[in-house]
Amino acid sequence: MEERRMGSVSQASRRRKARGINGLIILMVILLGLSFFVPTNYYITRPGSAISLGPIIEVEDGKKDETGSFMLTTVRMGEASLAWYLYAQVSQDAELMPKQLVVSQGENNEDFIRREQAVMDNSQKLAEAVAFRLAGYDVHVENQGVWVMGTLEGMPAKEALKIGDVIIEVNGVKTPEAKDLLQQLAGKKAGDEVEITYTRDGQVAKTMLPLKPLPNSQSVGVGIRTDSKQLIEIPKKVTIAAQGIGGPSAGLMMALEIYDQLNTEVDLTKGFQIAGTGTIALDGSVGKIGGINHKIVAADAAGAEIFFAPDDPNDPNSNYKDAVKTAERIGTSMQIVPVKTIDDAVAFLNELKPKQT
């Protein structure tokens, strides 16, 4: 009897212990699940994808005989929950950014997405202009006004203007560029009112706005972040189906794909999978972007063999140097190529020997 009682006690003890462990596991699962809904004051960035541009860019009468491909690269970005915050503490392929560095003061996530899409649209137009000029076509460029890329919390423009609006006049004087807007506000003081004429979704509207001191500045203004809105006319139709991709960093790679479709004499890819990144300006210069370490990881995962990275030899944290560091860390065989202009990229491709298959 004593042995049976001891056996029963031992079994009961094991059952209690098992229930305790199971309860702890369930609690941990619940807490982990809840952590995805606990907000933080950060955004998280991670490797995105490398997307072949041939299928999403169509140039009128252009050729599509690439044996390889040009690829744009993306970064995944989103608001960081507590779970993602903790993940970023232990992963080399995740970074945290304070929310105020990503979105403007008073800007919500919808505003951020709208701004990123507007910048992407502008980047597409610049890529078209650069590619057509490179191919020898005439391109007409006309400044249309001052593009509203954001509004500051507590400033007059916050309730009156939206991201994507284009300011075309101040007090009846045309403002084709940001410098013209600043010129119209120069010499004015807080409390003065100005009449802003702007376009929104193709419609012209006007609003009277008082001027207020700008944050961390001796100047007064209405409180907007600006960019240039330009009318770019090219001789052939270009269709770019890049829905869901925002920001300016695909400019270089889009320009290369458009130029390759216009260039009927040679396949610039030479059979290689070519990824890259960088903004593009009207003069063909390639600008620095954010998150290049994530783009290197994404390109390598997609099988890219060559990667174009913006380069500035005078910048100790240039994209090219960061790209090389990441490539070494992940052990990729992908060739990292520094470029300052689109001409640098084209010159490299012209010298590239066709891939042996």
UniProtKB/TrEMBL annotation:
Domain Lon proteolytic: 245-352
Reactions that this protein is recorded to catalyse: Hydrolysis of proteins in presence of ATP
A Pfam entry, by short name: PDZ_2
All copies of domain PDZ, residue ranges: 117-184
Segments crossing the lipid bilayer: 21-44
NCBIfam families according to UniProt: SepM_fam_S16 (NF041438)
Protein family per UniProt: Belongs to the peptidase S16 family.
Record-given protein name: endopeptidase La
Organism whose genome encodes this protein: Brevibacillus panacihumi W25
